[in-house]
Write a structure and sequence with these properties.
alpha+beta; two-stranded antiparallel sheet; 3 helices; about 35% helix
Length: about 100
């Protein structure tokens, strides 16, 4: 399974990092600092690849986390493995289903 590594210019500056992700085709939106809670009214539905829109979404906040909208918005999907138990379960599924 191929894995793509995205290069982000400055992970300490969320606006710049969000813009870098968008330039690579990923729709992004801000999260409240230190959480997975969207910082916009409509959450993932506010995700954008539009650079001007991203500047507005992240304006004035240097502490936002960045989320990438999965599915059709970015053309990617994600699998969240929670710790070693999740990793072991994935290996078991791979052995069973290939």
């Amino acid at each position: 399974m191929p894995v793509e590594t995205l290069m982000i210019s400055n992970p300490e500056r969320p606006t710049e990092s969000a813009l870098a992700l968008a330039q690579q085709g990923w729709a992004v939106f801000p999260l409240h600092p230190g959480t997975k809670k969207p910082a916009t009214k409509h959450g993932f539905k506010d995700a954008s690849k539009d650079l001007q829109r991203i500047k507005i979404l992240f304006a004035g906040r240097s502490d936002y986390n960045i989320a990438v909208a999965t599915g059709g918005a970015s053309g990617v999907w994600a699998l969240d493995l929670d710790g070693l138990a999740g990793e072991h379960q994935l290996r078991s599924l791979e052995r069973h289903y290939g």
